[in-house]
Design brief:
320 residues; mainly alpha; Leucine-rich Repeat Variant; 19 helices; 70% helix; Vesicle_P115
Length: 320
């Protein structure tokens, strides 16, 4: 009965304060009674999301409540309430569009909760979310802008969302690429000290893989914006014989550095796939950029882990 009254409040209340109080109360109930809250109040929650999204307090609570409702507890259960409420939410693409509009709000919790909800929806129904986002290309621009957010958590969560969004969808990949995404990712990697950086470097390289693999137009963009020339720098070699560079044979190889290095070497191979129309010119630019020296060094480095040496030798074969 309490849930019914609160749901009715969302639909009929004329004062923002009343709707805010209703949303806060439902948020307090949703963890213990998700099915009941969702069944009775989901239409009202969506309605308030559209009418009051510029109010930070109500939006934070709305996003958190809807995320809980759409979270799947049992992936194997097709009747899981998370799938049911996800399908209800994404049936109208405007519900996804409003989330992209909400990303304009700078408040930490609004941005964080918006990204978490989009990630939840994407995990449940990736193809439909990609379709919805393609109806609003400006929305993709807002997602990519998260890479510029100085708050690490927002940037990192935005990065993970983009990785999921660009998987297996060429059109999304193209739009993401043309938001200067490669430049942003390379800046993030440089800020993290290249292959010596943390998991954020791995995620940045993974997104680059998604955008470049089998996507000729994105490879052209990558090449024409001089990103290929930055690959030697990712490996810690800057093409200067007088540079203060520790030889690879004296370097430590913690697990994260191994993972990052392997991803850079695989990136080289993605750009030089046999039979790809862009491979000959990519190879030429790579050789001119001095990429062979660092990967030959890695391939012959006695101290490097065997997986790094193997990947480096493969990369040499692809480049030449």
């Amino acid at each position: 009965e309490t849930i019914e009254k609160l749901a009715d409040c969302l639909e009929t209340a004329t004062l923002l304060e009343d709707r805010r109080a209703g949303v806060l109360s439902l948020k307090g109930l949703v963890r213990d009674w998700p099915e009941e809250v969702g069944n009775k109040s989901f239409p009202g929650l969506i309605k308030v999301l559209h009418t009051d999204y510029k109010d930070v307090d109500i939006t934070k609570s709305l996003l958190e409540t809807i995320t809980i409702l759409c979270t799947v507890q049992h992936q194997q259960d097709k009747d899981d309430k998370g799938f049911k409420f996800t399908d209800y939410f994404i049936e109208d693409s405007r519900n996804v569009t409003i989330l992209l509009d909400i990303l304009e709000e700078f408040d930490f919790y609004v941005r964080y909760n918006t990204i978490k909800l989009l990630s939840t929806l994407l995990a449940n129904r990736s193809k439909r979310i990609q379709e919805c986002i393609l109806t609003n290309p400006m929305g993709i621009s807002r997602l990519v802008d998260m890479l510029d957010d100085k708050r690490d958590i927002i940037r990192n969560e935005g990065l993970l969302l983009l990785i999921g969004l660009t998987r297996s969808n060429t059109e999304v990949q193209k739009i993401v690429t043309f938001q200067a995404t490669f430049e942003k990712l390379l800046a993030v990697i440089e800020e993290q000290e290249g292959i010596s950086g943390d998991i954020v470097v791995q995620d940045s390289l993974t997104l680059m893989h998604n955008l470049l693999r089998y996507n000729v137009s994105d490879q052209v963009y990558f090449r024409e914006t001089s990103c290929i020339q930055q690959i030697p720098g990712l490996l810690g070699y800057v093409g200067d014989s007088d540079a203060d560079h520790v030889p690879y044979s004296f370097e430590d190889w913690p697990p994260q550095k191994i993972a990052n290095t392997v991803l850079v070497l695989q990136l080289i191979r993605i750009l030089t796939e046999p039979d790809s129309s862009s491979t000959p010119i990519n190879q030429k630019v790579m050789v001119q950029s001095g990429i062979l020296l660092p990967i030959v060094q890695l391939g012959l480095c006695s101290n490097a882990p065997s997986i790094v040496r193997t990947e480096a030798l493969y990369s040499i074969a692809y480049v030449v």
